[in-house]
Amino acid sequence: MGEFWPVRDVLAHLAGSWRVERTVRDLASGAEGRFSGMTVFAPLEDTGLLHQESGTFVWQGVARSAERTLRFLPGSGPGTALVRFSDGRPFHDLDLTSGRYVADHPCAADLYRGEFTVPDEDHWRSVWRVRGPVKDLVLTTRYTRLG
C-alpha cells in the first residue's frame, strides 16, 4: 500500500486506548529521557475526543508520574482534527488523510514542528522537533493500539 496508511476518519481511528513510548532528547546537553504509559481517547460530551495520557517519565535517572490532557475536535473533514490544549487554546491542526502530516506550534520564542505518521491501523508516531533560544529538543512518540 505504501509507506503511510491513510486515515479516513481520524476521530474514529484514534478512539480507544493506546500504549505510549516516548523519548525526549535534549540536543544541547545530550540528556535523554523516556516516557512510558497509556493514552485513552474517550468521547467528549458534545463532539470530539478527550486525549488523556498518563505514565512515568524518567529524566536523568529520576522517575516521576506524568500526565497531559488534550482535546481532539472535528476538523474540516473526517480525516482531520483540531487539537486543543485542555483549556481550549489551539495547539495544532491534524490531517491524516494521507497517513502523514506536518504541523507547527509557536510557543513563546521556540517553534515546535511535529510530523505525524501512520504506518498501519494499529500504530502511529509523532516526532516533535523543538528549536529556539530556550529549547533544542526532539520528542519521538510511538503509539500502539491496545485491545
Description:
The protein has one helix at residues 10-14, and strands at residues 16-26, 32-43, 49-59, 62-74, 80-85, 90-95, 100-107, 110-120, 123-131, 136-145. It has 147 residues and is mostly beta strands. A ten-stranded antiparallel sheet has the order 6-5-4-3-2-1-10-9-8-7. It is globular and about 40 Å long.
Topology at a glance:
Elements lengths: L9 H5 L1 E11 L5 E12 L5 E11 L2 E13 L5 E6 L4 E6 L4 E8 L2 E11 L2 E9 L4 E10 L2
Antiparallel strand pairs: 1-2, 1-10, 2-3, 3-4, 4-5, 5-6, 7-8, 8-9, 9-10
Descriptive labels:
147 residues, mainly beta, globular
Compose a concise summary of this entry.
This protein has 147 residues and is mainly β. The chain has one helix at residues 10-14; strands spanning 16-26, 32-43, 49-59, 62-74, 80-85, 90-95, 100-107, 110-120, 123-131, 136-145. The protein starts with 9 loop residues before the first helix and ends with a strand.
Shape: globular
Q: Helical residue percent?
A: under 10%
Q: Give the distance, in angstroms, between the N- and C-terminal Cα atoms.
A: 24 Å
Note poorly predicted spans.
none
Oligomerization:
single chain
Strand content: over 45%
Structural class call reads mainly beta
Number of helical segments?
1
Order of secondary-structure elements: HEEEEEEEEEE
Characterize the biggest β-sheet.
10 strands, antiparallel
Cα-based radius of gyration, to the nearest Å:
15 Å
Q: How many E strands?
A: 10
Strand order within the widest beta sheet: 6-5-4-3-2-1-10-9-8-7
Average pLDDT rating:
96
